[in-house]
Amino acid sequence: MTLTADDARKLADLFLDTAKKVDNYLDAQWQTKTIGRAEYETLSESAKTLLRLSSFMTSNAVGLSIAQMQDDSAELKNVVKKANRSLGKLNKVKAVIRLVAGVADLAVAITAKDAKATWKAVKGLADELK
Q1: Structure pTM?
Q2: Which residue, 12, 15, 76, 86, could crosslink 57 as a Cys pair with Cβ 3.0–4.6 Å?
Q3: pLDDT in tens, 32-65
Q4: Whole-number Å distance between alpha carbons of 58 and 56
């Protein structure tokens, strides 16, 4: 199955939305002093990575494809949407870090056009959301 340019653009938008939510989370946690400097930097770097990958996917959407995928792109978009919704509900910084890392792993796998890594990242992210 091929990830279409439209799918890539939608995923890029979802990654961008995730990065924005992480940024908002960081602002809120930093202001209330509920996050340490190391955790802040970890999440900040993850958000920056998602922003870069979103930009990369947008600019390369036409050529972006993933060959021989077993499921359709709806699963990809669904798991990122669930992650976005979960960000606002998580109370523990470590859980947010794991969730954001999972989204970043997925973005990297898609960008690398690595079907095996993509579905591994989808599964890992889905497991994290349980």
Answers
A1: 0.62
A2: 12
A3: 889 999 999 999 999 999 999 888 877 766 455 4
A4: 5
